[in-house]
Amino acid sequence: MDLGLKGKRALVLSSSRGLGKASAESLAAEGAEVFMTARSADKLEETVKAINAKGGKAHAYAADLTKDTDKIYEAAVAAMGGVDILIANTGGPPARVAAEVEPGDWTPQFEAMVKPVFRLAQLALPGMRERGWGRIVTIASSGVIQPIPNLAMSNALRSAIVGWAKTLASEVAKDGITVNLVLPGRIETDRTKELDEANAKRSGKSPEEVAAASRASIPADRYGTTEEFGDVVCFMASDRASYMTGGLIRVDGGSIRSV
Question: What domain count does the chain have?
Answer without folding.
Answer: 2
